[in-house]
Automatic annotation (TrEMBL):
It comes from Novosphingobium aromaticivorans (strain ATCC 700278 / DSM 12444 / CCUG 56034 / CIP 105152 / NBRC 16084 / F199). Residues 1-69 form the DNA replication/recombination mediator RecO N-terminal domain. It holds the Pfam family RecO_C. GO terms for biological process: DNA recombination; DNA repair. This is Recombinational DNA repair protein (RecF pathway)-like protein.
């Protein structure tokens, strides 16, 4: 296997003394797992932030081994990780994608939508500008993996209704997509929902 394509970094897991296993979302190849050598070094640490847009080169090894990846930074989400709400939104969107999509299946609409969601989180003046985009991404992901066709949130939905919608969708995601591994992943969503609720109603 050989892939060279723009990719959104969705997860990073340390592996061995110096490396890491990453999951990358690409438009044509879907989710791809790969090993990154030297991931904990000074040069690569700034690249390995979930949400970053990268140029990725993934090369297959032996059939029993993970492919290896070389990564170049295209756009960093690092500056937003110091902000509680954007950090929680980026973390949840990436964790959800990494944990629920099967590897090697292209989801071009999800790739584009995840990129648009991350851009919205980073560019909107507040969470009111991107929470609805997040809700729409969750609906799309549920639909793309075969769990119904819930309607997207209406554009003028009151804030408290949108938060209630996100709570309902969280239950569906936890029960349908993450039934066997909901704890760690849904913890990221619980943090996000708690912070969104603090914004207050319309």
């Amino acid at each position: 296997m050989q892939i060279r394509a723009p990719a959104i970094l969705c997860s990073v897991r340390p592996h061995g003394e110096h490396g890491a296993v990453v999951r990358l979302m690409t438009e044509e190849h879907g989710l791809a797992a790969a090993y990154v050598a030297g991931a904990r070094g000074r040069e690569l640490r700034p690249l390995l932030i979930p949400g970053n847009l990268l140029e990725a080169e993934v090369r297959g090894r032996a059939a029993s081994q993970l492919p290896s990846a070389r990564l170049e930074l295209v756009a960093s989400r690092g500056p937003w990780l110091t902000e509680p709400l954007p950090s929680a939104g980026i973390g949840w969107a990436c964790a959800l994608t990494a944990a629920t999509l099967p590897e090697g299946h292209p989801y071009p609409l999800l790739y584009d939508s995840l990129g648009a969601l991350l851009d919205a989180i980073c560019l909107a003046p507040s969470a009111r500008g991107w929470a609805r985009v997040l809700a729409g991404y969750e609906v799309l992901l549920l639909r793309e993996v075969g769990y119904g066709a819930a309607p997207a949130p209406p554009p003028e939905e009151p804030w408290h209704d949108l938060v209630a919608r996100l709570e309902r969708q969280g239950k569906a995601i936890g029960n349908r997509l993450l039934a066997d591994r909901a704890g760690d992943v849904m913890a990221a969503r619980a943090i996000l929902l708690d912070r969104l609720k603090r914004i207050g109603g319309d």
